[in-house]
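Q: Structure for this?
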Amino acid sequence: MIPISHYIVVSLLLFTTGVIGVLTRRNVIIILMSIELILNAVNINLVAFSHYVGNLNGQVFAVFIITDAAAEAAVGLGIIIAFFRNRQTLLADEMDLLRW
Amino acid sequence: MMNQVLFYFFAGLAVLGGVLVVTMRNAVHSAVFLITSLLATAGLYLTLNAEFLFVVQIILYVGGIMVLFIFVIMLVNLDVALHQVQFNRQSWVAGLLSIVLLTELLAALALARSGGPGMQLLPPPAAAAASLEGNTQQIGMLLFQNYVIPFELASILLLVALVGAVVMGKKKI
């Protein structure tokens, strides 16, 4: 039987990888993908705890998080396409329309 | 034994895929490795007896979201992007701080494992009482009994996202 700490360690590694991706990359699409990695890490944690506690509420929450990820990806990618049409760039540090 | 081999295989694959997503230069390669990582996560769900989430993960994440990502990458494909610097100026500080964050979280986990005062990790579950209902049926029951309102809210969220995506896709914005 695998102890729950192993699942938590996998989840932490994925989470940190996602955080590094969000903070260091310049390409917006890859930043969105890193956010998906973070959401996935959360899901692993929820499902693991749901299994070890012995009820299914965690898995229902994981379903909601997947729904949320789908909505976020749809709107985020739509924004990226609209921005790309206007500015011809995908780099996060060139998206400074609101900067004074 | 088999379960452990599968767990370490899927866990390694998921973490490796995640690292490659962040380090690859080409966005299409990143997307492919993200698919690897998501499929490996689906395998991890299987080792946790979450068959419904295993299927949902493959259909929705890999079949839906990642196809959307690859479509958008193809739509905004820029050859110039490959020759630009891929990491921003703050990346050294950010990487360092992320490593600090990871160390902190792992230290918290180690503290919980050592069983400090009032802390203790969940023991492995006793062999679950064999239920006649499948995992999918149980989740469906929970969704439509205890979580009806969140479920309806999620459908409204999806509707809003749909409208938002259509508006963002308009020619003139």
